[in-house]
Amino acid sequence: MGPGELHGVLEKLKVHAHPDLLVGLAKSDDAAVYRINDALAIVGTVDFFPPIVDDPYTYGAIAAANSMSDVYAMGGQVLFALNVAGFPRDFPREVIAEIFRGGAEKVAEAGGVIAGGHTVVDAEPKYGLCVTGRVHPGEILIKGGLRAGDRLFLSKPLGTGVIATAAKEDACTPDVLEGAVRSMLRLNRVAAEVLQELEVRGATDITGFGLLGHTREMVEASGVGVRIEASRLPLLEGALPLAEKGHLSGGMKRNRRHLESTLGEKGRLSMGASLSEPLTSLLFESETSGGLLFAVPSDRAGTVVERFKRRGEPCWEIGEVTPEATIRVV
Fold first, then answer.
1. Other C-beta atoms within 10 Å of 6: how many?
2. Where does 3-135 sit in CATH, by number?
3. What is the pLDDT of residues 285-307, one digit of tens each?
4. Which of 51, 167, 180, 283 is most deeply buried (CB count within 10 A of its CB)?
């Protein structure tokens, strides 16, 4: 469901408050957070989608990594997960087993365990997880944690959406697809741990609404704006050439239409005149199991990339948080 359609559904729902529900529908964050006591809160989230690659094991592992990402986006650790799946009645049992195996092994990599699940008959295969994690109530990462003057960082390159779309159209080389798969399989666990070390409070993960869609959520939750430097954005190898050839998803079109109609017409979204159309499209494109987008106070920003490097992972500084509630890409 696109951002516009989702907003139309959620605005009709009655929001139920509870003193221990620290994050719920009222705050529209990446996952729900429920306080157990002063030192422990539970993080809950669910996600699933149709196959994104042909190999069933890899599909299961990617779906699991994507499902767990929201726990990391809240600063949490994964405890356990439940399978959520739908398959055609005549779907090969050995394929289903491989999907489940991929998911289970990715959860084990995260330090968690598959504890059960639910499967229904569906015309199109779908798989994902309902994930439970833990976080200290005082260390929750939220979309509304941006502060003017913070520096903005991204922990994974962009481009999984356009590459997956091209692969479905048999227009993607194996090496380009493999690069996207490696990125989607990489957990945001290390990123979440580094953010806790830095005492970061503003973060989200980049998934279906694309970089600019999720940036918009942070801007609106925080009451500030961002300035993104397009030249500093990391892109997966092959992503831009595929975008230039038009291998863009339906999700990109919905994301772009929604942002341009709600922000662009109000002057709150501006794209630099020198940005190419393919690169602009990539900023709206849906991502699967994308990285964490987060902000760090300027006095600590100089250590971020090195901290990630020491943990064996990359990270990129891509811009800054500004006082005015706008999104500017230059």
1. 14
2. 3.30.1330.10
3. 999 999 999 999 999 999 999 99
4. 180
